[in-house]
Write a structure and sequence with these properties.
Helices cover about 45% and strands about 15% of the residues. By secondary structure, the protein is α/β, with parallel strands linked by helices. The longest helix has 15 residues, at about 75-90.
Length: about 140
């Protein structure tokens, strides 16, 4: 009689990773803490240029990005991220987070490839709902 193997527990699903991009370190820390409480892994960047580098290295499942930042603003960073993704045939949700809330800003964010727009000051509850909705719409490989 051959010994029976114990059934193995299913491998835990990896936690979705969120890239948080904001030039304000306090906002980055608040958002990273809140996303961690929701069991998301996080990576951060302080400007658009760094965001593109971190996006390339980390392959996050979602990006939360400020519009107004030094070096490269959020709109230009989003366009660069979309160009990178076009080569790989994928699309990561990008949620813009900004103190600016004009129809022009909303239109510019959509034209740059953004998927959603949340105004500062942040309602963490609203942000969490939008993050979960964006990740729910994402097609998992």
């Amino acid at each position: 009689m051959t010994p029976r193997k114990k059934p193995q527990a299913p491998k835990p699903a990896s936690r979705p990773k969120i890239l948080i991009v904001d030039d304000d370190p306090a906002i980055r820390e608040i958002l990273a803490t809140q996303m961690g409480r929701l069991d998301y892994a996080t990576a951060t960047a302080s400007d658009g240029e760094e965001a593109v580098r971190v996006f390339r290295a980390e392959s996050p499942d979602l990006v939360i990005m400020d519009l107004m930042m030094p070096k490269i603003d959020g709109l230009a960073a989003c366009k660069r991220i979309r160009a990178l993704e076009e080569k790989k045939g994928r699309r990561t949700p990008v949620l813009f987070l900004t103190a600016r809330d004009t129809s022009h800003d909303r239109l510019s964010s959509a034209l740059s490839g953004g998927d959603d727009f949340v105004s500062k000051p942040i309602s963490l509850q609203e942000l969490c709902v939008r993050v979960e909705a964006a990740l729910g719409r994402k097609k998992w490989d």
